[in-house]
Amino acid sequence: MIFQARELLEAKIKRLPTRQTLSILSDTPGFCLTVPTNAKCPDIEFRSMDKQLTVSQIVEPRGLLRIGRQWNRLCEETPNYNLSHTGRWDLSLPWMLGWLSELPESHRDLLVLTASTGSTLRGILPLVMQSTPHGRELRLIGSVGCFADAKGILAAEQDQATTGEAFGNYLATEWIGQIPSLHLRSVAKQDPGLDRFVQALVSHSGWNAQTRPEPPQRMVLRPIQGPDGEPIWPLSCRRAMALVKKSFESGMFKVSEVSEESGRTELAKHAMMIRGMVRNDGPELKEPFGSIPMSQRILDYRFSRGVSRNLSQIGRLGSCVIECKGTIIAGALFADFGLSRYVIWSEVRVQLGQEPLVAWMLLSQLLRTALKSGLRELQVGLALGHYASAMKNMSPSLWSISVGPPRAETQGNSADALETANIASDG
C-alpha cells in the first residue's frame, strides 16, 4: 500500500470535521484505509466490495475474557506449522492468560489487536509491551518459557495474510513513536501472517527489520501408525524400543494413564505425584514461565470453581505416570487438542544412566496412546524430547525478527543481524 508520511496524515486529519473520516487509497484494488477522527485511538478499517475488516485494540485483561469464546474458536482454526491440520492449543486463551499471570503487572502493558468483519472475529495478534534488561519492547504473548516458540496470529489459513497486513498498518499508523521496538522471538519462518505483518509495518513506518536464525525449542514427533495400532518406529529407534518392551514385560514397571473424562480425581492425583518428584528447593519451581508454574495455572483454571468455561473447557487434559516397585519414576501432564498432544510438563527421576530408558518408556506410551486416540503428533519440550533425537523433528524452522527505528550506524554482518531489510515507506 502507498501511505503518506505520518506528519502529512495527521495534518489532513486535523483539517477534517470531527465526524468525518480520512480515506487513503492503496495499491490493492478494492481496498482503502479509513481513519475515524473522533477517537483517541481510532480503529482501522479495510473495505472491499464484499467485506469490511476492522482492527481494534484490547489493553485490559478483562477485555480478553469478553472475546474468550471467539478466541478459542480461532485457536481451533489456526493452522499448525506445516499446514497439515488446524488447532494450536499453545495459543489458547487459558495458556495465554496463564503466561500473562506470570508477568508482574508493573512490567507489562497489554496491546492485543483484533480484526473483525461485523461481529465476527477473524484474527487476533496477542502483543504485550514488556520491560526487559534492554528497555521496553513489544513482544508476542507467550514467547518466553514453556512452548514459547512459533507464536503468531490466530486466524484461519485464508485470513492469515489479510489480518497480518491490517495489523501491520494499524501499528504503523497508530503506535509508531509510542513503542521503542518490536521483537518477535523464535517465530516460524514460514508464517504467512507474521510475514505480511512485518512487511506492512516496515513499509509504512520506515523502520528496519532484522532477522537471525534460532534453534528448535520443541520436538514434534509424527510417527506412522502400523496395522496393529503400534507406531512404526524408525530403524534408529528399534534398539531403544526393544529395551522398552523387555522392561515392561519384566513386570517391574506399571504404567497408568488417565484423562479428565475418565477420572478428574485420578488426574489431580497424578499431578500431585508428578509434583512430588520435584524437590521443594528445586530451581525449576522458580523458573518463570516454566512448565511447572504454567501447568499449575492450567490446573487451577480447570478445577477451580466459578472459572469461565472459556478458560476451563478447551482441549482435554490427561496424565501418565510410570511406577517401579511402587515408586513414581516418571510422569507427564498433557493436553489433547485438534490432532496434537501437547506434553506441558514431564519429569523423569531415576539413577544416573537410567534416564534414557525411562524417558523412552514414557515417550513411547504417550505416542502409542495418542495415535490410538486418532491424534497425529506428539509435541514435547527439549528436556524430554532430546531423548528422541533419533526421530525426525517436525517442528518448524525458527528465526527472531527485531523491528525498530533505523540506527545511525549499521553493524554490518553482526551475529545478531544475519539478514536485514530496510524498506522505506512509498510516501
Show unreliable segments: 1-50, 408-427
Number of E strands: 19
* Global shape: globular
Strand portion: 25-35%
Named CATH architecture of the largest domain: 3-Layer(aba) Sandwich
Strands ordered across the widest β-sheet: 1-2-3-4-5-6-7-8-18-9-19
Instruction: Write down the CATH topology of the largest domain.
Output: Aminopeptidase
Q: Supply the CATH class of the largest domain.
A: Alpha Beta
Descriptive keywords:
disordered N terminus, 427 residues, disordered C terminus, alpha+beta, 12 helices, 29% strand, globular, Aminopeptidase, 2 domains, 19 strands, 11-stranded mixed β-sheet
How are the secondary structure elements laid out?
Layout: H1 6-15, E1 21-25, E2 32-36, E3 44-47, E4 52-58, H2 61-66, H3 68-77, H4 93-101, E5 108-117, E6 120-132, E7 135-140, H5 160-174, E8 182-188, H6 192-205, E9 208-214, E10 218-221, E11 224-225, E12 231-232, H7 238-249, E13 253-259, H8 264-275, H9 291-303, H10 309-312, E14 316-324, E15 327-337, E16 340-348, H11 355-372, E17 377-381, H12 382-385, E18 398-404, E19 419-422
Parallel strand pairs: 7-8, 16-17
Antiparallel strand pairs: 1-2, 2-3, 3-4, 4-5, 5-6, 6-7, 8-18, 9-18, 9-19, 10-17, 11-12, 13-14, 14-15, 15-16
Helix pairs in contact: 4-9, 5-6, 7-11
In words, what does this structure look like?
This protein has 427 residues and is an alpha+beta fold. The protein folds into 2 domains: 6-217 and 397-422, 3-Layer(aba) Sandwich (Aminopeptidase), CATH 3.40.630.30; 218-388, Aminopeptidase (3-Layer(aba) Sandwich). The chain is built from 12 helices and 19 strands. The chain has an 11-stranded mixed beta sheet with strand order 1-2-3-4-5-6-7-8-18-9-19, with helices on both faces. A 6-stranded mixed beta sheet has the order 10-17-16-15-14-13, with helices on both faces. Helix 5 (160-174) runs parallel beside helix 6 (192-205). The radius of gyration is 24 Å and the shape is globular. The protein starts with 5 loop residues before the first helix and ends in a 5-residue tail after the last strand. The relative contact order is 0.15. Mean pLDDT is 83; it is low at 1-50 and 408-427.
